[in-house]
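Database export, one record per block. Field names are fixed; values are copied verbatim from the stored entry.
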Amino acid sequence: MLAAELDSAATAYDTVITQLTSEGWMGPASAQMAEAAQPYLVWMRTSAAQAEQAATSARAAAGAYETAFAATVPPPLIETNRTLLAQAISTNVLGQNIPLITQLEAQYGEMWAQDAATMYGYAAHTAPTAEVTPFTEPAQTTNPAGQAMQGAAVTEPPAHRPARARRLRSRNCYPPHPPHCKASHHLAHQPHPQHRSQTR
């Protein structure tokens, strides 16, 4: 369940980013956002695969336990064998209980061998299930100093804001210096029509 949810979330996440960067938001900023999101997508898909592996291992371990439990001699049978043996030994005054004692000992030996084989088999089947890859933390996808930078921008003196705006506009020209950016730059440095009329 967890593996399927992680894989579905990764697919939806990837779809949204692809649509956003190819239709509604294009430019250097969107490309940087998509690049920053890639490690998180990889982490989600890797975690989904690890969750599936862990679930498979858990199911295998549970199945091995059920098999071992069914194959193990019930403890009450072992206790009964030991009780009968103790009684046979305590009343074996003339050796009349030797055949019974031998039979009970042989029966106990078979029980011991069955339980030992079951436990060895259980250990062999569950050893691979214990090798689960540890989960990792997702990669950092944001700038830890982002909030501080935003706060600095808000408190920036008004005199510095025009220069900052020009830098941001120049960064948004992609590729560098396309025709519309050159035109806007040229118009920005032309005197106002009213000013031209006054200078004549």
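Remark 1: Residues 1-71 form one domain.
Remark 2: Confidence is low (pLDDT under 50) at residues 171-200.
End of record.
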